TrEMBL record:
Belongs to the SusD family. This is RagB/SusD family nutrient uptake outer membrane protein. Keywords: Cell outer membrane, Membrane, Signal. InterPro entries: SusD-like_N (IPR033985), SusD_RagB_dom (IPR012944), TPR-like_helical_dom_sf (IPR011990).
Length: 533
């Protein structure tokens, strides 16, 4: 029997949405019935939906749980050993319970808020007196937003409430739909989104377009082991889309290369000083304890006071070293005292507080160069770093994995990715060795871009058939054993974050996070929990 779920927030937010969206332009008394009357109103509403999905400037609602997901993998420690870690610790150390989920509650709530708002917008815009071209654009973008919300929810929590119509206060109960049904709706939304956006000119200002829909279709097909579809959609983006790989890997996250030629969808940011429109990611995961004396200029303007969460592991660094992959290593990780890659003149020995940093490493992808720092009177909330959500390299790796399972040329695709970072091509490998190499290339290429947890949960070790996360985590996990025997001079010195990271992982429950207990409470016990929580 299907499970039932109740979310007070999901059912009450339609009233909040009126306040959030409709007060922007007064025309007497505005209601949902008379708001969507102009293209400007529809565009404002759609822009707000997109902003809620991306939230690069909001550190807690979506950024924090997304960063926490990184911390639950072999790529990252919590990292900050000087402050309260209660928001991140439950999931990152696999001690999460329905009553103690840290910041993972917020992503659940935020996405249902956005889904309800998207449903309202789609219903109203369908009857709006605007042109068909305008209607297709705004509805196509809204469909993508709804699909992306469900994509994250189903991967985090499994079976979740599924609804595509706006709900009122009389709709007090909603069934949890199986993951297969949620995925089916995601696919339907993305296909409709792509169709509606078919005639819309592709631009690079961060707006959702049909290629983003096809790219997300490729990803969700891969996650469901629909290999033929994953190959179809990834190949479509590669061969028909207006994208190409950046010649310089570092340029993907370059503050001066927003919406570059490889980027399919990015969360936008701006350094405008009279508005807080910048990304909070460089602050949330920036180096903690920088000091002007460690910069050649000895100038306080060169310093960013990062919070120090989500610090790279030596295990990740070793993965790069094992491939002699210096370009991606230095573009992804800066070790204490090393020059910041690409910023060697102004930051030749990047130093920060080792007392507050578990690993002695920071994520280079989240780094703001010194020259940009000097242009900002205000830094917190004003940092101009766009966040790539989908980019072309992922499509090559998706096609490689799909080709592996369908008898295609998987080596060709991973060698395209390797060539970009000056690595020798892989030759003469097949079978389990090839699949493991594809997995490894995904890790090295896409580290800290929001996919690692989902990947290790879905990927299967070709030798044992177990999920990859089961081979890494738990008392017998290779990652746990590595840490317990590690001699890394940074990680083993700062033990204020436990060295046995991942030891509490239980494959009987930790392939998903629990449904927040508040949802069960609000349902008066009708809703059931994910297994073994």
């Amino acid at each position: 029997m299907k499970k039932i779920i109740l979310s007070i927030i999901a059912f009450s937010m339609f009233a909040v949405s009126c306040d959030d969206f409709i007060e922007k332009e007064e025309r007497g008394t505005q209601t949902l019935d008379n708001y969507f009357q102009t293209a400007q109103e529809c565009e404002k509403y759609t822009n707000e939906l997109t902003q809620r999905l991306l939230l690069s400037k909001d550190w807690f609602t979506l950024l924090a749980p997304r960063i926490t997901n990184e911390m639950a993998t072999d790529d990252a420690w919590m990292g900050n050993t000087g402050q309260d870690n209660s928001a991140h610790r439950p999931c990152s150390q696999y001690i999460v319970t329905p009553d103690n989920m840290g910041d993972m509650n917020s992503i659940y709530t935020a996405h249902y808020y956005t889904i309800q708002s998207a449903n309202i917008g789609l219903e109203k815009m369908a009857n709006s007196p605007i042109t068909d071209v305008q209607k297709n654009q705004y509805m196509g973008e809204s469909l993508f937003v709804r699909a992306y919300c469900y994509y994250e929810l189903v991967n985090l929590f499994g079976a979740v409430p599924l609804y595509t119509k706006s709900l009122g206060t009389s709709d007090l109960k909603l069934e949890r739909s199986p993951a297969t049904e949620v995925y089916a709706q995601i696919e339907a939304d993305l296909k409709e989104s792509a169709a509606k956006l078919e005639g819309i000119t592709v631009n690079r200002n961060g707006r959702i377009n049909k290629w983003a829909a096809y790219a997300l279709l490729a990803r969700v097909s891969l996650f469901q082991e629909k290999w033929a579809d994953a190959k179809l959609y990834s190949n479509k983006v590669i061969t028909e889309g207006p994208y190409s790989l950046e010649e310089n890997f570092l340029d993907i996250w370059n503050v001066n290369n927003h919406n570059g030629k490889e980027s399919i969808l990015e969360a936008q940011s701006s350094s405008i000083q009279n508005e807080a429109l910048g990304s909070m990611l460089p602050t949330l995961s920036g180096a903690r304890g920088e000091d002007k004396k460690n910069f050649p200029s000895n100038d306080a303007k060169d310093v960013i006071d990062g919070w120090g969460w989500c610090m790279p592991t030596s295990d990740l660094e070793n993965a790069y070293l094992s491939e002699n992959d210096e370009i991606r290593r230095r573009s992804t990780i800066t070790k204490w005292g090393e020059a910041a890659y690409g910023d060697e003149v102004l930051n030749p020995t990047h130093k920060f507080s080792l007392n507050d940093n578990k690993s002695g490493r920071i994520c280079r992808k989240y780094y703001i160069p010194v020259a940009t720092r000097r242009t900002l009177d205000k830094k917190d909330g004003h940092l101009p770093l766009n966040i790539p959500l989908i980019r072309l390299a992922e499509m090559y790796l998706t096609r490689a994995e799909a080709n592996y399972h369908t008898g295609g040329d998987a080596l060709a695709d991973i060698n395209i990715i390797r060539d970009r970072v000056d690595l020798e091509p892989k030759t003469g490998i097949s079978g389990p060795t090839l699949l493991k190499q594809i997995y490894k290339e995904r890790r090295l290429e896409l580290a800290f871009e929001g996919l690692r947890l989902f990947d290790i949960r879905r990927e299967k070790d070709p030798t044992t058939g177990k999920r990859v996360i089961e081979t890494l985590m738990g008392p017998n996990g290779t990652f746990v054993k590595y840490n317990l025997s590690s001699t890394d001079p940074y990680e083993t010195t700062n033990t204020r974050e436990a060295q046995d990271k991942g030891i509490n992982f239980d494959p009987a429950k930790h392939l998903l996070w629990p449904i927040p207990q508040i949802e069960r409470d609000l349902s008066n016990g009708v809703i059931t929990q994910n297994p073994n929580y």
